[in-house]
Write a structure and sequence with these properties.
The complex is a heterodimer of chains A (185) and B (51). Chain A has 185 residues and is mostly helical. Chain A has helices at 2-30, 36-58, 66-93, 111-132, 146-168. Chain A is elongated and about 55 Å long. The termini of chain A are far apart. The mean pLDDT of chain A is 88. The mean pLDDT of chain B is 88. Chain B has one domain (2-41). In chain B, helix 1 (2-18) packs antiparallel against helix 2 (24-44). Classes of the chains: A mainly alpha (185), B mainly alpha (51). The A-B interface holds A 35-40, 43-44, 46-47, 50, 53-54, 57, 75, 78-79, 82, 85-86, 89-90, 93, 102, 150, 153-154, 157-158, 160-161, 164-165, 168, 170-174, 176-177 and B 1-4, 6-8, 10-11, 13-14, 17-18, 20, 28, 31-32, 35-36, 38-39, 42-43, 47-51.
Chain lengths: 185, 51
């Protein structure tokens, strides 16, 4: 069961990395740099991933402890609540009839609405994983291939870091309706 | 730059987690609190991060 839990934690990180990669892809394909609230939501996704990453890193000693599960889940849930708050704020900003919203919609919903759904799913998934720890025994687990997952997480964080530096240039804040990359202007 | 700082703090938190450094939780809580304050300031002032 411990192996299954670590596999689920890895899958959780990969789903969050794929969400961030999709947002980054949309940014490049549609030529739409993210707004400040979008960046806050991206950071919240990264912080959500930090939870399962914590659990994976702790299990490098080949023991999966309840402490690691609890702390990792806590990190994930608190971060998802932060992201949900940012996404809700953005949904409410564009809720009035006639408002076309920010950015291009995907399957009829804007990215910030998908983001809110994803944060709620993250909280639910983390809750289910916490319940599943009822069947876990604190004993030795075989070494996991966690390093690839951790590298993918780091790559997506660094990519977003470079992107936001390019977008903000030398300004403290991002423009509320960004149209380009201020570092290159 | 403030968003870059958030991400740098996040990377520092990851580094602390990787090395099992005692600063891992203070760094995470600092990042979380700073972003929360940033968001609350936006929610309580007229449309600064308005999009």
């Amino acid at each position: 069961m411990a192996r299954l839990y670590l596999l689920a934690a890895s899958c959780n990180v990969w789903v969050l990395v794929l969400i961030l990669a999709s947002a980054f892809g949309a940014q490049l394909i549609f030529g739409e740099p993210p707004c400040p609230l979008c960046v806050v939501q991206r950071i919240a996704f990264m912080m959500c991933a930090l939870g399962p990453v914590y659990t994976l890193v702790q299990s490098r000693a080949n023991v999966l402890s309840y402490r690691a599960i609890a702390i990792g889940s806590g990190i994930s849930i608190v971060s998802a609540l932060l992201g949900a708050a940012a996404a809700t704020r953005q949904v409410l900003l564009h809720i009035l009839p006639g408002d076309r919203g920010f950015g291009s919609p995907l399957l009829g919903l804007h990215l910030y609405t998908w983001s809110l759904i994803a944060f709620i799913c993250q909280i639910a998934a983390t809750g289910l994983m916490l319940i599943s720890s009822a069947w876990i025994e604190e004993k030795s687990v075989p070494p996991q291939a966690a390093n690839v997952t951790v590298v993918a997480f780091l790559v997506i964080v660094v990519t977003n870091l470079l992107s936001v530096i390019a977008e903000a240039g030398f300004n403290w804040e991002l423009p509320s309706d960004p149209v380009g990359y201020l570092l290159f202007k | 730059m403030v968003y870059a700082l958030f991400m740098i703090l996040l990377l520092l938190t990851f580094g602390a987690i990787w090395r099992k450094h005692p600063l891992q939780f203070p760094l995470f809580l600092l990042t979380l609190a700073w972003i929360l304050v940033h968001l609350l300031r936006d929610m309580t002032t007229p449309l600064t991060l308005s999009f």
